[in-house]
Amino acid sequence: MNNSIIIITDENTRANELEQALTQHGFQILAKAKLCESPMRIISSLEPELVLIDSNTISKNLLELIGAIAEYGERPIIMSGQHNDTTAIAQCTTAGVNAFIFDDFNNTQIEAIVTAAFVRFNTLKKIKQELTEARTKLDDRKHIDRAKGLLMNKRNLSEKDAYRLIQTMAMERNQRMAEVARNVLSMSDLIG
Hints:
Order of helices and strands: EHEHEHEHEHHH
CATH topology of the largest domain: Rossmann fold
Strand content: 5-15%
CATH superfamily of the largest domain: Response regulator
Shape: elongated
Distance between the termini: 56 Å
CATH class of the largest domain: Alpha Beta
Radius of gyration: 25 Å
């Protein structure tokens, strides 16, 4: 980790304080951008490891920006500002913020906050990957079951034999069973 950060802000005073605190702890500030300056373009061109958003106002546009950074980003997001509204904090967290720096932060807390953001980000990333894998396996299982049912019905096979047929076809074609099942179902749709 090279600790590269982009600061997106609506107010330079606080951004300067944050920049100073971060650089004192060995973080490299790649750029500071205003919220109104197309920050997604800057993020995509510089590819920071972390994005810090400093804003005292939580708007729909800001939540959309957070969501876009989280979706595109593959990087943690830290939110900084004077936020004492729990609803706003929840909205930011739901949109993709991984950690918060509140207005009365202590310079010595920066490393802990950045570490917490990375840990939360990586934990959520792992959970999302596991969820995607589980959904794929479930979808594959559904296709295999449907293809088995079709073969049982059209070819008068037992469930075990239909499964073996899909398995054999997968081995012969060097494909996954789910791919073979999808092909069987597609051919059935064509033939009728």
